[in-house]
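User: Before I run my own analysis I want an independent prediction to cross-check against. Here's the chain; please return only the structure tokens and, at the end, one sentence I can use as a sanity check.
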Amino acid sequence: MSKSADEMKTELEPEKLDLRSHDIAEERRQELLRLFPEIRTEDGKLAFDRLKLALGEAVDVGKERYGLTWPGKAECFKVIQTPSLGTLRPCPEESVSFDTTENLIIEGDNLEVLKLLQKSYLGRVKMIYIDPPYNTGNDFIYPDNYSESLQTYLEYTGQVDAEGKRFGTNTDTDGRFHSKWLNMMYPRLYLARNLLRDDGVIFISIDDNEVSNLRRLCDEVFGEEGFVATIVWRKKITPDARQDIDATHDYVVVYCRSADALGKQGTFGTIPLSDERRKSFSNPDNDSRGPWASVDMTGMKGRATADQFFDVALPSGRVIGPPPGRSWGVAPATFAKLRADNRIWFGKDGDGVPRMKKFLSESTGQNSATWWTEDQSGTTESAKKALVPLFADPDIFDFPKPVDLVRRCVMMLGDPSAIVLDFFAGSGTTAHAVLDLNRQDGGRRSLVLAQLPEPTGRDDFRTIADICKERVRRVIRKMNDEDGDKLDLDGAKKQDRGFRVFKLAESNFMTWEASKPKDPEALAKQLELHVEHIRDGRNAGDLLYEILLKSGFPLTTPIETLTLAGKQVHSIASGALLVCLNRELTLDLVRAIADRKPERVVCLDAGFAGNDQLKANAAQLFRAKGVTSFKTV
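Assistant: Structure tokens:
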């Protein structure tokens, strides 16, 4: 059957690059249709009644059910499902080692930033640490109109003219005090979960004001089975005498991306032994292997195998079995080997219940507990003092978190090359902690930070984002000054002590706005704008990184600039993607690009200058060379 001219033309035309962030709702719909094809309606929609039948359940929506609800929750899903049309513009002049570093500091509204990271960082982040607003009755910043978060942000930062939509504040006199906090947190946690690896973990600092709501919120986003622990850390030593009962502690709530990761090796690592734990090691029998501590070597009776119930002859001559309700933790053969190697302690008189000897020299650390003291995780006072060597002003930022606290969270992970994300970056404590830990153990952890440029009222650092960037610069400078040219711990290349700055902005490419008025004057204005659809003031770097981001590549992907047929072409990820931003494409250039056999190609639509024949030839050449995706923007 022959194809029509329109069909053939469609086949020969490249796709348009999708400038929207990842469409989460559509992905979920497609996954449901894949699992339950029987729920597809005639027009391709979902029949939820059929889904209930497929699951063997009949749910009466009129009945009350357990769950967390609040005013605005339904709107949160609309916010989550609305793709962002923003971009992240590179700022090499504010960065440190922009071309080589794997670390990112992104200035912008974290809701939009999280949306924009969905394609390129989906399932790649090992750890998230955040210190969100505690909702203590003081103001916190949030967008008044969640459905226009990007527009609100652009007005807030003066990038477009304001029309009354601003970032607002939340105080304890507001009638929806808790609801506004939940509306702010829910979309961010939902989007953040998508970025975590299957064995990824999130740590959230919080206090008593919202800890109960946070737990229920996380139960909904991560599932109750994803709950790991609520850590209590002592934030100050001396109680405030003005308070009847002063809160000297805060919390760190910990959840896993997937409950399957709990208990698996690699999800959590050990932390260094505390001074208190080290003091428990001694050497009463002068063992040549040095100090040791004895640990219980019995097991639970209900989980034991038959060979874990046997009698043991003690050095004293007495014969005993496992304690009541318990088994031995090992089988007889293993017990005999441990005993022959002098790894079982029977007490000074040789008549005690057997215990295993764990040697200090063989210790890889200890598991973390849920109670962290000031010597383990620092205090709010020590957090302020940590800023003095960097800024000489402990009051430059209100309520910073201690470096020790965040470093201890990072240390709990079993991955020294993890990506660590903090989308409430504040003064940059997470960056400080990760850089410091990498310096200590030779790790290769990388960072992604996001911070709203909230005004400070200061002349030197006008926004909190400015404080964050400058703190990280000064931490890097201080470390480099102290280390000189010293190599890192494994003798390899120097550690990554840099960061790339990106700033949230409108897309570099103007898209057709269907919501605009349809009168002749408005249509004429839109048509005029789309003659040149690249915004004024945007450079090649801006365009390149937007294409990178929206093609699903991380912002730190290596970029090489090639010269093909006398024109510049950017090679992404060792040639997996070739991007040509030239406005005068030629057949020779198209052939040269095709000859490199990339997986994907993106060109400026303006580069074809209305030459449909050249565009059709390009599509044919790329297809012949095995290019799987040819798109224009």
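Sanity check: The chain has a mean pLDDT of 87.
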